Recover the amino acids of this structure.
């Protein structure tokens, strides 16, 4: 994304490429394992250590 925005002024095809890469990143992030980290951290830990473990995990 950064390489497409280096040249000034940014032309329309490059701007479209930047937006497309942002969308691809968001879809890949949301459909991958990363959003599950919040669920796993809160469900796996014991009740006594849940607060500390959640702070460390997040």
């Amino acid at each position: 994304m950064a390489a497409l925005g280096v040249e000034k002024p940014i032309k329309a095809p490059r701007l479209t490429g930047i937006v497309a890469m942002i969308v691809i990143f968001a879809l890949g992030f949301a459909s991958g394992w990363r959003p599950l980290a919040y669920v796993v951290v809160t469900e796996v830990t014991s009740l006594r250590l849940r607060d500390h473990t959640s702070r460390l995990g997040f």
